């Protein structure tokens, strides 16, 4: 019976690919937040309050850790990579808390974006951080399966990349907010292309995590327009209202 030969995985190329993906994500975040955060002095950046400062610092630290972790693997220091893994999981847990808090703070301040009301926009950061949480938890459970783990971490980071992409200095985002998702999917397509090149198939982790990301992005805006979501977001917003 004939069998299809699988292409041997070139570990050097694999390590360089994931390190390169991390660098592309870093560049995307820097471009998105350069004007309002990184080049504005970080600590002196004109942000609304201390919560947003802490939120920005912790999320930036996640990107730095991503670079460090992929660089350690590329350098063959898997031992140090694993030692930093628990720190990464703790940092991710803190990000979920701060992400939810920052999103709610924006809602209570009436912050909308891309022409959306605050209650409608609220669905975007909430679903981003929930998707991130699910994927990071799955990645932590798969930490002894390197091929699964690294793909889930990359896609988890893509789930929170929208905030940076939306702030790229490109007018097309203001004309068509869906372009944020399109650019995010371009990163996902790079991962799919690498899978097809290296494995001759899409890795199962890329498949299900990518499907989750796309599914959430597709369904969240129709859901944001429902009475259920608007009622929930309005209730959350009212919790921060100051009594007269």
Verbal overview:
By secondary structure, the protein is mainly alpha-helical. The chain is 74% helix and 0% strand. The protein is built from eleven helices and no strands. It has helices spanning 11-33, 50-74, 78-108, 118-121, 123-141, 146-159, 162-165, 172-175, 178-199, 204-224, 227-239. α3 (78-108) runs antiparallel to α5 (123-141). It is globular and about 60 Å long. It starts with 10 loop residues before the first helix and ends in a 5-residue tail after the last helix. The model is unreliable at 1-5 (pLDDT under 50).
Task: Put the structure in a nutshell.
The chain has 244 residues and is mainly α.
Helix content class: over 70%
What's the total number of strands? Answer: 0
Shape: globular
Element string (H = helix, E = strand)? HHHHHHHHHHH
Q: Radius of gyration over alpha carbons?
A: 19 Å
Biggest sheet, in brief?
none
Beta-strand content estimate: under 5%
Low-confidence stretches: 1-5
Number of helices: 11
- Overall mean confidence score, pLDDT: 87
The assigned structural class equals: mainly alpha
N→C terminal distance: 80 Å
Throw out a few tags for this protein.
244 residues; mainly alpha; 11 helices; disordered N terminus
Helix-strand layout with pairing:
Elements (H helix, E strand, L loop, with lengths): L10 H23 L16 H25 L3 H31 L9 H4 L1 H19 L4 H14 L2 H4 L6 H4 L2 H22 L4 H21 L2 H13 L5
Helix pairs in contact: 1-2, 1-6, 2-3, 3-5, 5-6, 5-10, 6-9, 6-10, 9-10
